[in-house]
Design brief:
Helix content is 75%, strand content 0%. The protein has two helices and no strands.
Length: 63
C-alpha cells in the first residue's frame, strides 16, 4: 500500500518537472511549457492508472 502511494505521487511530479525542464532548456515559451506540463501530467495519470491495475486490493482475513 505504501509503495502504491509513493508511485501515485512520484510519477506525476517527475513527469511535470521533466516536461517543464525540457521545454525551458529549449527556450520555449511559457505557454508551450504549460501545455507540455499538462500533457505530461495527463499521460502520467494514465500511466499510474495502468500501473495501479497490477496492485491487488486488500484482502480480508477472517478468523
Amino acid at each position: 500500500l505504501v509503495w502504491a502511494s509513493i508511485v501515485t505521487y512520484i510519477i506525476p511530479v517527475v513527469a511535470l518537472f521533466l516536461a517543464m525542464g525540457i521545454a525551458h532548456q529549449y527556450g520555449l515559451g511559457v505557454g508551450i511549457q504549460a501545455t507540455a506540463a499538462l500533457i505530461a501530467f495527463l499521460a502520467s495519470l494514465a500511466l499510474v492508472r495502468w500501473i495501479g491495475k497490477s496492485f491487488k486490493g486488500p484482502k480480508i482475513i477472517e478468523k
